[in-house]
Amino acid sequence: MGTTTRYRFREYTVTTVVDPMALPTFEAVCVTGEEQDCGAASGQTHTPEELTRWIAAHCAQTGHTTYERTTRATLRAEPGEWK
């Protein structure tokens, strides 16, 4: 004879809020290339304008035009309540 186990889950609400005390970071990697990506990376910048300047300089030096951008922000979880 088999046993049946039943689990009941309640929903827990959490809201995430960008931490105003932490600076966001922006980063880009050059992915131009047919057989392999260039791979040049901007490193972390703190404004989209800084990142755009890096991309413009890399593009001017190499002619590369395709990039992947990563944007990171520190979030704070604000717990809600169980439902």
UniProtKB/TrEMBL annotation:
DUF7848 domain sequence ranges: 1-82
Annotated source species: Kitasatospora atroaurantiaca
Name of the protein described by the UniProt record: DUF7848 domain-containing protein
Pfam families: DUF7848 (PF25232)
